[in-house]
Amino acid sequence: MPGKHPFEDVVEATFRKNLRKPGWLLVDLYGRGCPPCTSQNAEAKIAAGYKSRAELLRMNVENAKGVLEEFQISGIPTLILFKDGSRRSQFVDIPAADGQNVLDWLAEELK
Length: 111
Prior knowledge:
Elements: E1 8-9, H1 12-19, E2 24-30, H2 35-38, H3 41-50, E3 54-60, H4 65-70, E4 78-83, E5 86-92, H5 100-109
Parallel strand pairs: 1-3, 2-3
Antiparallel strand pairs: 2-4, 4-5
Helix pairs in contact: 3-5
């Protein structure tokens, strides 16, 4: 991937540590070999608009089997939005092209 990804790459233990913190947490679940997962278009727009409002993390699903099972994730890419440690909402199959519907989803959720 060219350049630094706008979300911080973490392992499951780090995710769980961040989940205990108060505030908003947005997690991007991705996989290597998943073309929509490797595009940074939507993530870059999300980071530009929401980095100051939410912690932004991403996890490779190969290293997050417990998270997949716990939150019943069946498709990637998936964004999960947490508030004060509780899952608030999720968005599956992020479009690689522009991500406007993801931005609209976040704007509604973070009101």
